[in-house]
Amino acid sequence: MSLLELRHIQKGFSGIPVLKNVSLDIEPGEVHVLLGENGAGKSTLIKIMTGAYSKDEGEIYWENQRIEIQSPVDAMNLGIATIYQELNLIPQLSVYENIFLGREIRKGPPFRFLDHQEMKRKAKEYLQRLGQDISVEELVCNLGIGKQQLVEIAKAFTINAKMIILDEPTSSLSASEAAQLLETIMELRKQGIAIVYISHRLEELKQIGDRITILRDGAKIATLPVKETSTDEMIQYMVGRNLDQKYPKEQFQLGAEGFRVEGICLQGSEKEVSFAAYQGQILGIAGLVGAGRTEIARGIFGVDQVKSGKVYVEGKEVRIQSPQDAIAAGLAFITEDRKAEGLILDQTLEFNMTIASLKNFRKGSLLQLEQLTQIAKEYITELQVKPGDVQKHARKLSGGNQQKVVIAKWLSTHAKVFIFDEPTRGIDVGAKVEVYRLLNTLVKNGAIVIVISSELPEILGICDRILVMHEGQITADILRDHATQEGIMKAATGGM
Ligand SMILES: Nc1ncnc2c1ncn2[C@@H]1O[C@H](COP(=O)(O)OP(=O)(O)OP(=O)(O)O)[C@@H](O)[C@H]1O
Ligand SMILES: [Mg+2]
């Protein structure tokens, strides 16, 4: 018997079909993976399962009963819990208060006081069921993102979840946090809970998945047993062709020092960071999440104030006290957090892609609008942004396609120094290759390219030189030919 069955689901937005006749069944206790390119319809499909969107056509069955899921409350009452990428925790509350938020346990009448003891006891039990040893009285703000996510999962027990849906849960986790999450998922599976799992990290899917359903352009291509399907087959189903190269690395002549920072020290820190980057070389910055890589980049770019430090572009010192100064000095910073810092969601793609480079489109006091549209169109083609309509609002794009728009916005500035922070987070395998090709093109055109990434295969696959950070400091500076996963991990954990 299947737990949840979707039959012939159709969904469109303003007349454009996004899900086309999708049928799918989830069995109790299985890990069912949804795989597909950016914009294939994965998030839309799960939003139908969780009552966030209503379907246009089709039928839904829960334990063989025909039902409708018209709101998130309906889904919760059935026992469907969802872990979204943005966590819904209140940082100033404790772990147990968060777990029971909105579903507090109260003592019997007459006063109905909150039963803190009982909530603590149960919270502890839930975390133990996840194999976790987190203090239930700890404030959530004191926990790392990986632990916070586990607290979010523990909430699922308060509704007696039979099914837990996770949409790209590991994309903001470090390698060890991700490994822990995968273990937790296997634990839930053992307890008979069905898991619906979305991720662009194919290695993960191999590790935990029972069955995999592949979507392409809103249609279901196949449901397959994971064990009997190779990664290459998955990719082929997903993109409709073979990917000959995951990392299209090109070699360039090593050039001049184009960028240098000296003694950058962040507010509230005693540690200093210095490094130089050269033309012809992609410089990677590896490290665990929380090692201080993003903070240093924000300091360099003038987003956060620094206590001290100097920045040189092409040998000349530049003074940066704000992002405007940084842009004027020829820097571009492609942030990891596209919603908060990268995009204006209620503006068009064209607007978002050209906002950082408007000065290039001025002629006297006039903006050359046609040229602006032209450039936006070029980037849409180059990065395979879908849907490729320059007038579309950024909000309406899938997560991965939004990320591509952020990249385009900075490419159009023709900066001298590009700092990418997790550039391929949430981007599908096919589009990743396009992003890597773009990095190559930037280097070929003489730009300095710095890539912060937590994915070691990516760092090793595309960078020529790798800096490793640990607790706010650079602990290694390794050339590609000498770099190994083990060596980087060792430096990233401080064990040199
Ligand atoms: N609220 C909306 N209004 C209009 N179009 C939308 C809306 N939400 C999603 N879409 C469109 O539906 C399609 C599927 O999007 P969805 O978010 O389901 O993709 P996805 O498979 O989750 O992709 P990703 O891997 O990038 O997260 C996309 O073309 C997207 O632009
Ligand atoms: Mg999505």
Automatic annotation (TrEMBL):
<dbReference type="InterPro" id="IPR017871">
    <property type="entry name" value="ABC_transporter-like_CS"/>
</dbReference>
<keyword id="KW-0472">Membrane</keyword>
<keyword id="KW-0067">ATP-binding</keyword>
<keyword id="KW-1278">Translocase</keyword>
<keyword id="KW-1003">Cell membrane</keyword>
<dbReference type="InterPro" id="IPR003439">
    <property type="entry name" value="ABC_transporter-like_ATP-bd"/>
</dbReference>
<feature type="domain" description="ABC transporter">
    <location>
        <begin position="4"/>
        <end position="242"/>
    </location>
</feature>
<dbReference type="InterPro" id="IPR003593">
    <property type="entry name" value="AAA+_ATPase"/>
</dbReference>
<dbReference type="InterPro" id="IPR027417">
    <property type="entry name" value="P-loop_NTPase"/>
</dbReference>
<feature type="domain" description="ABC transporter">
    <location>
        <begin position="254"/>
        <end position="496"/>
    </location>
</feature>
<keyword id="KW-0677">Repeat</keyword>
<dbReference type="GO" id="GO:0005524">
    <property type="term" value="F:ATP binding"/>
</dbReference>
<keyword id="KW-0547">Nucleotide-binding</keyword>
<dbReference type="InterPro" id="IPR050107">
    <property type="entry name" value="ABC_carbohydrate_import_ATPase"/>
</dbReference>
<keyword id="KW-0762">Sugar transport</keyword>
<keyword id="KW-0813">Transport</keyword>
<dbReference type="GO" id="GO:0016887">
    <property type="term" value="F:ATP hydrolysis activity"/>
</dbReference>
<dbReference type="Pfam" id="PF00005">
    <property type="entry name" value="ABC_tran"/>
</dbReference>
<dbReference type="GO" id="GO:0005886">
    <property type="term" value="C:plasma membrane"/>
</dbReference>
<protein>
    <submittedName>
        <fullName>Monosaccharide ABC transporter ATP-binding protein, CUT2 family</fullName>
    </submittedName>
</protein>
